[in-house]
Design a protein that fits this description.
Helix content is 19%, strand content 27%. It is built from five helices and 21 strands. A seven-stranded mixed beta barrel has the order 13-20-17-18-15-14-21. It has a six-stranded antiparallel β-sheet with strand order 7-6-9-4-1-11, with no helix packed on it. Strand 14 and strand 15 form a beta hairpin. Helix 1 packs parallel to helix 5. The chain is of the alpha+beta class.
């Protein structure tokens, strides 16, 4: 099956969970910015949760489906419409053959995810489907989608076929059909325009004085226009170390908060470099990375100190919720 790209959107790329195991060779992890939305969208169409999906940024694409498909749209609301009719989010949706799926601009967030049953059929590079934009490989020809691109899909999974047949039988003549069941709001991250993000102390946390730590945890920081998938540049009360020290480059990860000489923090995101030489004051907990991934340019971000136990509990709760979601989908479509 083929999806025709009528309009590409601002930055629409093929992504998956990331390219792990190659940082020692200088190859970044990349992958989706909002892992919860990506994984949930895949579960809702019967895919493995790490199958390749489309990540949309700020302005979404217009896509023509030449054959019937099972889709799910998660993340920020891009006002999806199938042949002009609003498409519900966070649930399985049947799309009739010959339907045009259009996305508008994002609302209260900046990234949306489209999963299609079977997943995007693109070559694997270093065991990942993710697009590495700066290096120009992975995903769809190593780049963002363009007008006229043809996206191939993999065969629908067994669960996806079962879901597709049921929704197709209920659809009638409409362009799309969805079940009333949807995921519970209770298991979703607390998406909001100005998020409060939990952090744990970073490797150089103790090298910052109490006033700087107080500023980090009590001030609001604005996401700057220079922010991208590599890192969010924040502006607020400048942070400074107790004394200037030469730092050796060390490994960094998604959510590492570095403090460059100007004192304005940088939060490293999905396309982060493999190592960094700036002091690391804090680390965003894994469970709150989706909240940060949805922050728009100009959004206010606040940080709240958590301990390792709280971070682990939040992570395990997210994983438990996704396990239960998978079971709920399987039970509903038995």
């Amino acid at each position: 099956m083929t999806i025709h790209v009528r309009k590409p959107g601002l930055l629409t790329t093929v992504q998956d969970a990331g390219r792990y195991g190659y940082q020692k060779y200088g190859v970044i992890v990349s992958g989706v910015m909002d892992s919860f939305a990506h994984r949930t969208a895949n579960l809702l169409v019967g895919n493995d949760e790490q199958a390749a999906s489309l990540e949309m940024t700020i302005i979404g694409p217009s896509l023509y489906f030449e054959a019937a498909a099972l889709i799910a749209v998660c993340g920020s609301d891009f006002s999806a419409k199938a042949d002009g009719m609003p498409v519900p989010m966070w649930r399985p949706v049947y799309i009739k053959a010959g339907t045009t799926l259009e996305f508008g601009s994002s609302r209260e967030g900046c990234r949306g995810y489209l999963a299609v049953s079977g997943g995007m059929d693109v070559p694997k590079h270093m065991n990942s489907y993710s697009t590495y934009l700066r290096a120009g490989f992975g995903g769809f020809e190593g780049r963002a989608l363009k007008e006229g691109d043809l996206l191939q899909l993999k065969p629908v999974t067994a669960l996806g076929r079962k879901m597709l047949r049921r929704l197709e039988s209920e659809a009638g003549e409409t362009a799309f059909h969805s079940v009333k069941w949807r995921i519970s709001y209770e298991i979703m991250p607390a998406y909001k325009p100005n998020p409060e993000i939990r952090v744990i102390p970073g490797a150089q946390y103790d090298l910052f004085d109490s006033d700087c730590i107080e500023a980090l945890l009590s001030s609001e920081f604005k996401v700057q226009p220079q922010s991208d998938r590599m890192g969010y540049r924040l502006a607020g009360q400048p942070l400074a170390m107790l004394e200037r020290k030469e730092m050796l480059s060390e490994p960094v990860t998604f959510g590492t908060i570095q403090v460059p000489p100007d004192g304005n923090p940088i939060v490293l995101m999905a396309d982060r470099q493999t190592t960094g030489g700036y002091p690391k004051v804090a680390q965003v907990i894994t469970a709150d990375l989706p909240l940060l991934a949805q922050a728009q340019i100009g959004s206010g971000v606040r940080f709240k100190l958590a301990d390792l136990h709280e971070a682990q509990e939040a992570y395990l709760l997210t994983e438990w919720n996704l396990i239960n979601l998978r079971k709920s989908i399987q039970m509903y479509f038995l």
